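tool_call: predict_structure(chain=1)
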Amino acid sequence: MTYATVSRVLGGLVLWMMLAGAAGAQPAPVDPPKDKPPTPAALTDENFPQLLKDLGYEVEAKANKKSELYWLIKAKQEGWGYVVEVQPQRSAQTKQIIGFWLVSDLGNPLHNPAATSAPALLKLMEKSHEIAPYFFTYNAASKHIALNFEYPYSSIDKKGLEKQFNNLFGKIRDTYPLWKAEAIEVVHGSPPAPVVNASPPTAIALANSQWSGGESLASYGKLSFQFLPNNQCYMFDRDGKTQGTWFQNGNQVTLQFHGQVTYKGTISGTLMHGSATNTQATWTFSLKRQ
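tool_result:
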């Protein structure tokens, strides 16, 4: 084999190796990028109340002492009624919304906030630690125990906002035995003296009984209570059938519905008379055992 032939063979081999290397160096095909979910829009004084309305809540716009907007929402879920203040957090420089607080006054106001049960308040503090970032406070202006939650971000979509409210509503229902006024307040401002082997006062048995009559609340009239075992009950009125709870102390009975409406009555034989309150009104009722 001549020198020229060898050169041609070697040159062809080198060229083939270069082409093969170049082909191997080609980048692997890349899958097209997947569509990212849309980023929630930043919260504003315009779109925030609309989000609340889109969730089916009753929305009332209010203004604080700095003339900054906040909103009061009313909602119903699983037989409970909720009233929640939606308080935006704003940037000190731009005044843009950078987060918000959900604050809900619970149940009825405390009649005498100075006469509260220390053990009951300690239980509330313990529960606040357990359910953080939710926590209990006392609203001195309304005399209510309140449940609070902070959302520390500037944007949220409808689904995310609904989740925050559902979580709050669930915490309110789950902690009801701790924050109801009967658990917090001490009668006559002092705790009862401890007694050993004490028997409860003789009381009229209410479980499995039905009481019917009327109430003086505007636009309402006929009223009935059905007392069930385990302190459960039903109320029948213009709104239909509502589930609640009842508690008895001698001839005194208290019924609560939704954590918002309270009936307190005195039993005298087959008659029950008393008064009722909600967040807006007070009225009387009178019933007879059936």
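agent: The domain at 47-187 is CATH 3.30.1460.10 (Yope Regulator; Chain: A,). Proceeding to next step.
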